[in-house]
Amino acid sequence: MDVNVLGIIAGFLTSISMIPQLIKVIREKNVEDISWVMILVLICGLSLWVWYGIIQKELPIILSNAFAVLVNITLLTCFMIYRKK
Amino acid sequence: MDVNVLGIIAGFLTSISMIPQLIKVIREKNVEDISWVMILVLICGLSLWVWYGIIQKELPIILSNAFAVLVNITLLTCFMIYRKK
């Protein structure tokens, strides 16, 4: 398999993986069992992957991680809104 | 910054990101708000990243994603154990 196609499929899967979680959170308005530390560490790590992708000039890494950063920022925002005070 | 160091830090953060979630699940034995679709899609995507890393011969990608696969398989196992029937 072409390595770029492989990277795009891999990136597509890892970037969309948080979407079912996001939908579940928006639908159920419940975030009690979710770890905000996970989301925060993930956002930091994914942002560094974007940087890595830019240096290595690897488009699948840049696109998939940039998208995943956006999804996780949305998830973190939902977390802030729905968490129990 | 050296690109390998950057990749290692990025990979370290994304691989450890699920650990706080795993600890929370093990401690609280509650997985109601977590999406198993997320975990499953993530495992598929991360496995493809390992494959991508092997072809590109990029150690940070291989190691971090392989570790993340293990963490997520553990999380999925916990999900199966703790979910309400």
TrEMBL record, chains A, B:
Its main location: membrane. The chain crosses the membrane at residues 6-23, 35-55, 61-82. It is a multi-pass membrane protein. GO terms for molecular function: sugar transmembrane transporter activity. One of its GO terms (cellular component) is membrane. It holds the Pfam family PQ-loop. It is found in: Membrane. Keywords: Membrane, Sugar transport, Transmembrane, Transmembrane helix, Transport. This is Sugar transporter SemiSWEET.
